[in-house]
Amino acid sequence: MPQYAICFDLDTKAMDRDGLTESQKSSVYQQEGQKALEAAGLKRHLQYSMYATEDNEHAFETIMRMPTKLKELAPKFCRYVKRFLVVRVEDWGNITDLLQEAA
After folding, report:
1. Is the C or the N end of the chain the one with fewer CB within 10 Å?
2. pLDDT tens digits for 48-101?
3. Is the dihedral of CA 84, 91, 94, 30 positive or negative?
């Protein structure tokens, strides 16, 4: 079964124009967005704005739940989202070992 990852970018310039403080901007990323993504079933927080499905058997269902959960639980996140991508993670795509061997 495939695994999926999501990557997103929020419009911090729009957040600045709307007067959000650094703390409020951080909250949109780290609390509001994370809460909604986890409610949809994304459990693996890979990086600041990258998450992956954990249960490969139900990965597609998780991806399909995301828009509803984000609109319901993360309105500021949805307001400031600039780009939101879903990518399929291939087994061969992890080249960490190759990079570490070169070091």
Report:
1. C
2. 788 888 777 788 888 899 999 999 999 999 999 999 999 988 878 888 888 888
3. positive
| Stated pTM of the model | 0.81
81 neighbors 8 (Cβ within 8 angstroms): yes
Q: Cβ distance 89 to 2 under 8 Å?
A: yes
Kindly report each contact of residues 23-28 with a partner whose C-beta sits within 8 Å and lies 24 or more positions away, as own/partner. 28/74, 28/76, 28/77, 28/80
Q: Going from the N-terminus, what domains does the chain have, and what CATH number goes with each? A: 3-102 (3.30.70.240)
The C-alpha atoms of residue 8 and residue 62 are separated, in whole angstroms, by 16
SS3 content of the chain, % helix, strand, coil (to 5): 55, 25, 15
